[in-house]
Amino acid sequence: MTARRSSIERKTKETDIRLDMDLDGEGNGSISTGVPFLTHMLDLFTKHGHFDVTIDADGDTDVDDHHTTEDIGICLGHVFQEALGDKKGIHRYGQAMVPMDDALAQVVVDLSNRPHLEYRAELPAASIGTFDTELVHEFLWKFALEARINLHVIVHYGHNTHHIVEAVFKALGRALDEAAQLDDRVKGVPSTKGML
């Protein structure tokens, strides 16, 4: 099987990011973002998606966490899309529902080459530690845009914001893993259009 792996180095005046992703990994992560809560969420994403991910990011977190979070979403989406290659033989669709104590999150994806984010999540708290929870949407939107996927995030319920976001990131990893899986029954690209 051809390796489904991609890397990116992206440097701006706000961030300096090196990121590597292997879709057919074992859930191993070496992740340093400079944003502790985001690092925690990406560790969960990696483990539950069975991806191998390395991230080394340095950003202007003295300003706030926005640029670093956004740019990691951009880079992760880019390498995910690139690692998929021609998309021949993939499932294309994936979904996962993940409980985390009081919270239940659902993520549904289509690796369609048509980027869209549908975000149905009410987060009770404006921050988790020093992390602004509005950045969850920012990360997911930039990831969906660069990965060129249709991404639906639905939080059914929950009152602890940490638990809600954790369930979302775990479900995201699991849904993407399902969608990216290769299936011997799928001949070519799974689309009547003949391309994705």
TrEMBL record:
CDD domains in the cross-refs: IGPD
Superkingdom of the source species: Bacteria
Functional pathway: Amino-acid biosynthesis; L-histidine biosynthesis; L-histidine from 5-phospho-alpha-D-ribose 1-diphosphate: step 6/9
EC number(s) per entry: 4.2.1.19
Keywords of this entry: Amino-acid biosynthesis, Cytoplasm, Histidine biosynthesis, Lyase
Enzyme class: lyase
NCBIfam families registered for this protein in UniProt: PRK00951.2-1, PRK00951.2-4, PRK00951.2-5
UniProt cross-references to PANTHER family, sorted A to Z: IMIDAZOLEGLYCEROL-PHOSPHATE DEHYDRATASE, IMIDAZOLEGLYCEROL-PHOSPHATE DEHYDRATASE HIS7
Family per similarity comment: Belongs to the imidazoleglycerol-phosphate dehydratase family.
This protein's name: Imidazoleglycerol-phosphate dehydratase
